[in-house]
Amino acid sequence: MNSECLVCQAKTINHIANKFGSDKKATAKFKEEANYIVANSQSLSTPYSGLLLHRLAKRIFKTENLYANEKLKANKLLHLNYSYWKSLVSNSDNPMHVAAKLAVIGNIIDYGAHSVPDDILSEINHLLEKEFALNESEEMFEAINNAKTVLYLGDNAGEIVFDKLFIETLNHPNLTFVVRGEPIINDVTYEDSHFVQMEDVCKVISNGHDAPSTLLENCSSELQKLYRDADVVISKGQGNLEGLLDEKRNKLFFMLMAKCDLIAGKLGVKKKDLVIKQNKK
Amino acid sequence: MNSECLVCQAKTINHIANKFGSDKKATAKFKEEANYIVANSQSLSTPYSGLLLHRLAKRIFKTENLYANEKLKANKLLHLNYSYWKSLVSNSDNPMHVAAKLAVIGNIIDYGAHSVPDDILSEINHLLEKEFALNESEEMFEAINNAKTVLYLGDNAGEIVFDKLFIETLNHPNLTFVVRGEPIINDVTYEDSHFVQMEDVCKVISNGHDAPSTLLENCSSELQKLYRDADVVISKGQGNLEGLLDEKRNKLFFMLMAKCDLIAGKLGVKKKDLVIKQNKK
After folding, report:
1. Is the CB of A205 inside 8 Å of chain B's CB atoms?
2. What are phi and psi of B194, to 5 degrees?
3. Distances (CA, A) of A225 to A145, A208, A229, B245
4. Are both A32 and A115 inside the same structural domain?
5. A278 touches chain B (CB under 8 A)
6. How far, in Å, CA of A258 to CA of A128, rounded?
7. Same domain, A99 and A197
8. Does residue B96 share a domain with residue B38?
9. How many domains does chain B have?
10. Boundary (domain end) residue, out of B46, B61, B76
11. Which of A228, B195, B222, B278 gets the highest tally of CB atoms within 10 A of its CB?
12. Is A21 in the same domain as A124?
């Protein structure tokens, strides 16, 4: 784990301690062991270390779904205006492009170490004016058009509303949307996919794991098989990218907003830039 | 973590998978993530890596106390003959020495990566004939005699019966026995201390943590304070030693059977040797 990630993990610890820290004894216990995890996890990947911190918080604060309210709020807020977003897409000159951009923009909603803008809706409209810093969407659309099967790795609540709109616009006959196996930060689970009725536009499966990422070797064998067999894989968000950055498979596309200098640097863009990029083969 | 420890952790994974593996899907999930933990925990201490493996097993197999039956069996087996062990001690020429030796011998009961002899009672009698490979018990007894407060870090179920007998024989007015905060392997918890009525001979507290060791920085602040303030600390078993090996405090004594070549080598003894040793200051 990079030293920049250590700083971010320390922020996460403070964030959780402030949010759930009404019991001072439990908070002290959480902080002690969380600091131990961060200090000793140089050889663990950043998402796995994040997973350990959140599992610890769940144990100590006896709360399975730490961000249940934030998730519901984000889902409600964006789903409420679904028909508006849909009209924005269908009335545009390039519906696929606008839908893809909204899907990437949705990635601003993140309750981990990063902050969430107060006024999400105006932030979205502002970001729609922004150009992609890296845009390999044409390659992605071509690959999807030629694909028999597409695997779409979901990311966050709220964002999932735009994923649904993008998937609806893609209108691919065999696309599977993947949610996390358990609540972790504000990442999508079955609860979120039901809320936005994702099952109306594609199949939905769980990856069987609770990392804020896709750590393939820890996912269910069903997910591993789908990943191996899919003609195209779309990976949403920075967390999924962190788990899949060194993957060598063909036709793997990352759609994300770069959330920190470290990942932005690896992608050759700046923090907060919008990215659609095929992985290095 | 040492490569020898990696082998032992792999054994632990197989042991747990065999014991709880009736659900094949859950077992596959457990093995995948457990292997990931072991493969990526070079910078974690061995007890902390063990802690992660057992927390994982508890989650996946939905069993809080993985070794409940073995713990009860070992407690029952040794407690049943408490008056016999007590007469063995009190009828000897050197009761303190015999009680201390029994307390060390009790350390053979271990359901982690190590095996448990089929016939524990005859094994105990056999080991009573064996000499200590390292015996700094005189220094320990002197320190205890001069101590206002003694902290005794407990280890395993079954073994706790001999700890009680040793503590009863020591008859110190201010000794505190420490149990783990949650079940982990066959380590002692309040349940075990109640079973052997430890509270009749000394105070009992929990360390507030669930490592198969004493990882001080993760223990409750109460335990940390007691550890700092105690005149003498007695650390039972190899697990506690692994957490405290680099401690510099005065009057810290390790009582254990060396369970593997790595730890035996660090102590300058052989595997299965009996040891009472003051820490390096």
Report:
1. no
2. -65, -40
3. 22, 13, 6, 45
4. no
5. no
6. 16
7. yes
8. no
9. 2
10. B61
11. B195
12. no
Q: What is the pLDDT of residues B204-251, one digit of tens each?
A: 999 999 999 999 999 999 999 999 999 999 999 999 999 999 999 999
The predicted pLDDT at position A113 comes to 45
Q: How far apart are CA A154 and CA B229, in angstroms?
A: 52
Do residues B122 and B254 share a domain? Answer: yes
Contact check, Cβ <8 Å, A40/B35: no
Using an 8 Å CB-CB cutoff, list chain A residues near B40. Answer: 43-45, 48
Question: Which amino acid makes up residue A207?
Answer: N
Q: pLDDT by residue for chain A (281 residues), tens digit each? A: 777 888 888 888 998 999 988 889 999 999 999 998 988 887 888 999 999 999 999 999 999 999 999 899 889 989 998 999 999 999 999 999 999 999 999 988 765 545 455 577 888 888 999 999 999 999 999 999 999 999 999 999 999 999 999 999 999 999 999 999 999 999 999 999 999 999 999 999 999 999 999 999 999 999 999 999 999 999 999 999 999 999 999 999 999 999 999 999 999 999 999 999 999 76
Q: Are A25 and A17 in contact (CB under 8 A)?
A: no
Instruction: Write out chain B residues lying below 8 Å of A25, CB-based.
Output: 220
Question: Which chain A residue shows the shortest CA-CA distance from B37?
Answer: A44
Which structural domain range is residue A39 located in? 3-60
Within this chain, do residues A195 and A149 fall inside the same structural domain, yes or no?
yes
Question: How many contacts (CB atoms, under 8 Å) link A and B?
Answer: 49
* A251 residue type, one letter: K
Instruction: Tell me whether residues B42 and A41 touch, CB distance under 8 A.
Output: no
Neighbours of A274 (CB within 10 A): 23
ipTM at complex level: 0.74
Encoded tokens for A67: 């961000």
Residue with tokens 């349940």: B191
* Interface membership of B64 toward A (CB under 8 Å): no
* Chain B hits for A59, Cβ within 8 Å: 55
Same domain (yes/no): B173, B227: yes
Task: Quick: pLDDT tens for B99-118.
Answer: 999 999 998 876 554 545 55
Torsions phi, psi for B179 (to 5 deg): -110, 165
